[in-house]
Amino acid sequence: MFGFFDVIQDILSNLRTFGLRDVIDIAVVSLAMYQIFLFARKSRAGQLVRGLLLLLVFYALADVMQLRTVRWVLTNVMQIGFIAAIVLFQPELRRTLERMGQSTNWTKLLFTTHRQDPTLRGAWQSAVVAICDAAEQLSDTRTGALMVLERMNNLDEIIRTGTPLSADVIPEMLGTIFYEGTPLHDGAVVIRDGRIVAAGCVLPLSNNLEMGKDMGTRHRAGLGMSENSDAIVVVVSEETGIISLAKNGVLIRRLDRQNLFNLLQEEIIPPETAEAQKQPLLNRLLNKGGAGKHAKTNAAR
After folding, report:
1. Model confidence over 31-57: pLDDT tens digits?
2. Among 53, 52, 24, 269, residue whose Cα is nearest residue 169
3. What was the pLDDT predicted at 33?
4. Comparing 257 with 214, which gets the higher pLDDT?
5. Do 256 and 242 touch, CB atoms closer than 8 A?
6. Which residue has the higher pLDDT, 64 or 47?
């Protein structure tokens, strides 16, 4: 009981000196914990995290009640459990760190001049229409297809596993590639900047245990690609003709042409932006400061 009052007194004394740094400190820790919970929900680590939380509760109770032996045992168990978690969930941790390293949007925003090719938007618009038309035709004939649409993450590693191409995205080309019996029909097509850059590519398979039994290797490959990158993957089932779209480790199934078009238009087609917004953030700030300084000089004159 004495230890409990000590804890209350410590909390009250800390509240008296609570400031902005403490708010930032708590916010950073809260964000980190939130990301850990998200990681646990999207992986097989959910039960492990719940077990660790239960151990933390027991440890807090043992600390308050001054149970030294129990506290010593729990401390060693948690240390061993932390190392075991790293070993057991190494693939998930590696995938998460890879995606963090591949997410370079903030560096491009600050330090690079993102002068978008004026023809890129048009290329993606025509490519999306062709992909939707091809997916509908392949679905009607129950021809399996796997189309990977590259976004920010570079897919050169995946492209090297297939046959390099340089072709426009048209329904006839996609239909020819995925026609059963052709050399490249079993792999995936990679589309970059609205053009086909490779076919017959090998994709990483997902380890998601919640996938239905009616989904085969093609769906597992599409889902695995979306788990390991920010790419959008369109999958057409060979058995059922169902059109699916994989994004960020989530598989959206039973799409018709219009729904697929709406999703791709939202995710793939670059938005129309003003020329000033295409400049990096640092350049815009410097230009703004220079303009303000120039205006003050003119006013002084």
Report:
1. 887 776 766 665 555 566 667 777 778
2. 269
3. 76
4. 257
5. no
6. 64
3-state secondary structure 126-192: HHHHHHHHHHHHHHHCCCCEEEEECCCCCCHHHHCCCEEEEEECCHHHHHHHHCCCCCCCCCEEEEE
144 neighbors 177 (Cβ within 8 angstroms)? no
The confidence score (pLDDT) of residue 130 equals 97
* Residue given tokens 């992909």 in the structure block: 131
The predicted structure's pLDDT at residue 7: 66
Q: Kindly give the pairing relationship between strand 145-149 and strand 188-192.
A: parallel
Nearest by Cα to 158 from 199, 117, 97, 125: 199
CATH code for position 243? 3.40.1700.10
Does residue 154 share a domain with residue 95? no
Q: CA 22 to CA 13: how far, in whole Å?
A: 13
Domain range spanning residue 160?
A: 120-267
The DSSP call for residue 271 is: P
**Torsion sign, CA atoms 14, 15, 17, 23:** positive
Residue with tokens 């998601």: 208
SS3 91: helix
Residues 157 and 47 in one domain: no
Closest by CA position to 249, among listed 206, 295, 189, 201: 206
The pTM score is 0.60
Residue 270 pLDDT grade (very low, low, confident, very high; cuts 50, 70, 90): confident
